[in-house]
Amino acid sequence: MSYNVNEKGFYGDFGGAFIPEMLYPNVEELRQNYLKIMQEPEFQKEFQQLLVDYVGRPTPLYFAKRLSALYNTKIYLKREDLCHTGAHKINNTIGQILLAKKLGKTRIIAETGAGQHGVATATVCALMGLECIVYMGEIDIKRQAPNVARMKMLGAEVRPATSGSKTLKDATNEAIRDWINNPENTYYIIGSVVGPHPYPDMVARFQAVISSEIKHQLLEKENRENPDYVIACVGGGSNAAGAFYHFLDKKVVKIIAVEAAGKGIETGESAATSALGKIGIIHGSKTLLMQTDDGQITEPYSISAGLDYPGVGPMHANLFQTKRAEFLSITDDEAMKWGLKLSKTEGIIPAIETAHAFAVLDKKKFQPSDIVVINLSGRGDKDLNTYIDYFKLT
Amino acid sequence: MHHNSSINDKLKEDKKLLSIYFSAGYPNLNDTKTIIESLENSGVDMIEIGLPFSDPLADGPTIQESSQIALHNGMTTNILFQQLENIRETVKIPLLIMGYFNPILQYGVENFCKRCAEIGIDGLIIPDLPVDIYIENYKFLFEKYGLVNVFLITPQTSEDRIRYIDSVSNGFIYMVSSASVTGNQGIFGESQTNYFERIANMKLKNPQLVGFGINDKTTFNQATKFAKGAIIGSAFIKFLKENGVNTIDNFIKNII
Fold first, then answer.
1. Measured between beta carbons, which residues in chain B are less than 8 angstroms from residue A169?
2. Under a CB-based contact definition with an 8 Å cutoff, are residues A260 and A312 in contact?
3. For the whole prediction, is pTM greater than 0.90?
4. Which of A72, A138, A254, B146 has its CA 20 to 30 A from that of B202?
């Protein structure tokens, strides 16, 4: 069984391109060209060079000694938090902006929830001198003021999404509407492994550098390529897709995807799509989706803005359905506790999204000989206000 | 069982056709039947009943708002079908349901088609159901229940793809007037009228109805100079917002 996309754009039952005809020419242009462009030596050279010199790759695979002692197992942290702009998001935006340039596009649009993908997009647009418009829910703009300021400093225009629930899914709707209205010169940089084919596959390929590096680094440190476990948090699922990518077909590697339970799966304030979702269509992709019985998309909740997406990428929906990955959900309180614990144990303040992944250490029993890799997808600077409020740090 | 001859008979009439779209459940939950009957009595040729969706990504602010209010009013797929239960006792003109695919998928595509056929719905317009997936998975159901499926084309659609869409269509083609979501204002410019003429010159098997951006008599006449008819949505919803459902006749009289 393959866990990668098939020639029709599906991962098992999930994926495809459920898009209105207005988007067809753009999505089709991308579908026909993305692999060809990504495989060109010239593209690869520029992409790899920027990952090294601009993003700061490879990121360390750090043996977390104190944490390992605490849990009596071998825990490695993949330090995506050390990437330029503070998270893995930029791996993808660097790749997509180079692709946009190859396609001759001059105007870049993006959606953002917490603002991390918006900042990563604004950054690469500044780097390439391209016009950048970021759609962000009106409510998120208020919650994430520092990232809004960053995007503006980087020269991007931040447009509020005022429709629907005024959060990430509505920002995505607005970005799609913008693309419909500007079909000729505009490229849409999607920030996660969501959206119509080929986006989920393309974004996963750009993020796959994470697992590719893990393999090389583990070989050096442990004389083996495959860990026993890879753990990552999942909202849409881009950091997880990158961390899992090169291990999907290695059955010896156990894969754990961690979703946000919010206040608890049963509370109605949750973002645990695998537990609460049913198959449906969101943003052009057939996937697991939180919705009413009538097929209306519902608003998820998590304390971490980066995990409150009502769907999950089609690759992950398939990993869940085929049981290739184990899906766990972690509450706000458990994640927040881990934000503090990682800070004090290893001197690393994680993004709240990332803190969810660490909470798995309390949920599962690992053997002393197990090698457990946790993808440390982002740093916690952006979440300082939430940490301050939660722990009354002032 | 009702059959799709109704739409095709209408398309053969020697006149330019006016089709009206509205969001079911707007302005009030139970306005559906009143709106449909008033539209027929005002001389409208065809009606697209909008099944509201939480995330209508091809629609502009007007239809987004009307959909959201309709859902807030409590509109569901089941309620819409109940409201339409006896509609064929009073209404003769072709009726289509236009909606996004997810609510239909949740209802069950076959169940949905079956209910439509029982009620006397003539066809469906599902903007985010791609042609290839329709052909592979659902075409046989539409045929089984005698439903016309209507596909969209846009100014960016290639000639080959237009020919392909024409070959798999069995009613009319929904011609999106410009690169835009619904609800744009203003008259059509040269590039749009050129596009209307270009499509007319392709001599397609299926007639075309132009939609998106038709808002008054001028744009209706521009659109139907080359096409068989035109569809008005956002402008009609704005009228309902300002005037309610009792004077629908006034809106239609200003168009035809």
1. 55
2. no
3. yes
4. B146
